[in-house]
UniProtKB/TrEMBL annotation:
Membrane spanning residue stretches: 54-76, 82-103
The protein's name: Transmembrane protein
Species in which this protein is naturally found: Pectobacterium carotovorum
Record's keyword terms, sorted: Membrane, Transmembrane, Transmembrane helix
Superkingdom in the source lineage: Bacteria
Length: 204
């Protein structure tokens, strides 16, 4: 993909070797470093003890309504005789509260812990990696290097149709999919063409 470099306009692309932005006319080498000074945003830190408490609480939330329902069916405590919808509603409310308040914890449980000195995508623009005490949830963003653009690169959910060399993907905060990036494990963001269309659903 060829990106024209125009030297006019208020927000023209800056050529700065120290920041990793190189001549965007060089098709094979154009990139920008996503990691740099003031590019990181820390969302939260989650300790191992907090994650363990969440797992125990999550299992309890999933099991208790079912155990109460079984107890009613077996008439273990006939004094509490609630209809089925009450258990379903209670489970839905409690489960919803857990998802809203502890969604990052749930995603860590689902995605699985990264290896040491590795980071994984949690969801959307959120990444997470190990710390000595647990996990840190963060993201990186820097200026878009497409010509005459003053947006920022935002890490995005990977496209369904891509299976290749990049670790993450990004979009421009202003131009969206029109300014797409492939991001490698060193957090170098390369302007690329991306097919963002979802995979067709099976008719089965």
């Amino acid at each position: 993909m060829e990106i024209e470099q125009r030297n006019s306009g208020e927000h023209q692309t800056v050529i700065n070797n120290e920041s990793g932005v190189i001549n965007v006319n060089n098709h094979h080498g154009q990139y920008t470093n996503l990691v740099g000074e003031n590019t990181a945003r820390i969302y939260k830190e989650i300790s191992h003890s907090e994650q363990s408490k969440f797992i125990v609480s999550f299992v309890a939330v999933c099991l208790l309504p079912g155990l109460s329902l079984v107890a009613d069916f077996m008439q273990i405590h006939p004094a509490i005789n609630l209809p089925l919808w009450a258990y379903v509603a209670a489970f839905g409310v409690i489960f919803g509260v857990v998802l809203v308040g502890y969604y990052d914890n749930l995603r860590i449980l689902v995605v699985g812990a990264p290896n040491k000195e590795e980071c994984k995508q949690l969801y959307a623009d959120r990444l997470f990696s190990r710390t000595e005490d647990g996990y840190i949830v963060f993201t990186h963003t820097t200026a878009c290097i497409y010509p005459d653009c003053c947006g920022n690169i935002v890490i995005s959910t990977p496209p369904e149709r891509y299976n290749g060399e990049y670790s993450f993907f990004g979009k421009c905060s202003l131009a969206g999919r029109q300014h797409s990036y492939g991001i490698d494990y060193n957090f170098k963001a390369y302007p690329i063409k991306v097919d963002w269309r979802p995979m067709p659903k099976s008719n089965q």
